[in-house]
Amino acid sequence: MGQSKSKQAEELCKEFLLSNQIIDICEDKKEEGCDIVGYKDGKKLYFEIKSSSGRSKKSFYGSVMQSELLLAIKNRENYKFIICRVVNKKLDPALTILTVDEFLAYCKYQSPLYRYSYNKNKVSSQKHRNIKNLEGIIIKMQKLHDMCKEIDKN
Fold first, then answer.
1. Using CA atoms, how far apart are residues 1 and 6, in angstroms rounded to an integer?
2. What mean pLDDT is reported for the chain?
3. 8: helix, coil or strand?
4. Could you tell me which of 43, 38, 51, 64 has the C-alpha nearest to residue 10?
5. Residue 55, pLDDT score
6. E-strand spans in 6-151?
7. What percent of the chain has pLDDT over 70?
8. Residue 94: what pLDDT?
9. What is the average per-residue pLDDT within 30-59?
């Protein structure tokens, strides 16, 4: 089985950043909260890859997590979003690198997301959350979500 499209996009973007001398060194740092960490002239740079599966050559769409946006805002000067598409195991020439502010101009608040992890062979060991606590979080997040949707109508 081949690589997923997102993994292909990550590998191709690393090659693109290095070959175009946008970065000198590339690290695998998933714990940083972004897809690629690189260095240019000793300066640490963060890259979040947003690969779209849309068929249009002009339109790109997808989702971005709250944690990714928060990291981007906290590292505004050193953080970039790469908008791309993989076609026939190659990067589409429409690849675009956006600053945080440029990327945010195209974002719209939609909904909070929750992460789940399920393995049917380890069900009992994965039940680590107090359900009542999570229910409380879900209800509070919905109230906050409704407020944010109202603010973002402008």
1. 14
2. 80
3. helix
4. 51
5. 63
6. 25-27, 36-40, 43-51, 79-84, 86-87, 90-91, 96-99
7. 75
8. 80
9. 82
Stated as kind and residue range, the H or E segment containing 133 is helix 131-151
Is the model's pLDDT at 126 over the cut of 50? no
**H/E run at residue 12:** helix 5-19
- The per-residue pLDDT for range 87-106, each reduced to its tens digit, is 888 888 888 899 999 998 88
Q: Return the DSSP state at 33.
A: T
Measuring CA to CA, which residue among 9, 82, 78 is closest to residue 42? Answer: 78
Q: For residue 82, which of 49, 36, 37, 60 has the smallest C-alpha distance?
A: 49
Least Cα distance to 61 among 29, 90, 91, 83 occurs for: 83
Angle at the Cα of 106 from the Cα atoms of 34 and 5, rounded to 5 degrees: 45
Residue 97: beta bridge partners? 82
pLDDT of residue 7: 85
> What is the CB-side half-sphere exposure of residue 147 using CA atoms within 13 A?
6
> Which alpha helices (H) appear in 20-114, and where do they start and end?
66-74, 100-104
Whether the predicted model's global pTM rises above the 0.70 cut? yes
Note the Cα 7 to chain centre separation in Å.
Answer: 13
Return phi, psi of residue 143, to 5°: -60, -45
DSSP-based three-state secondary structure for 101: helix
Question: Which token pair is 117?
Answer: 């992890």
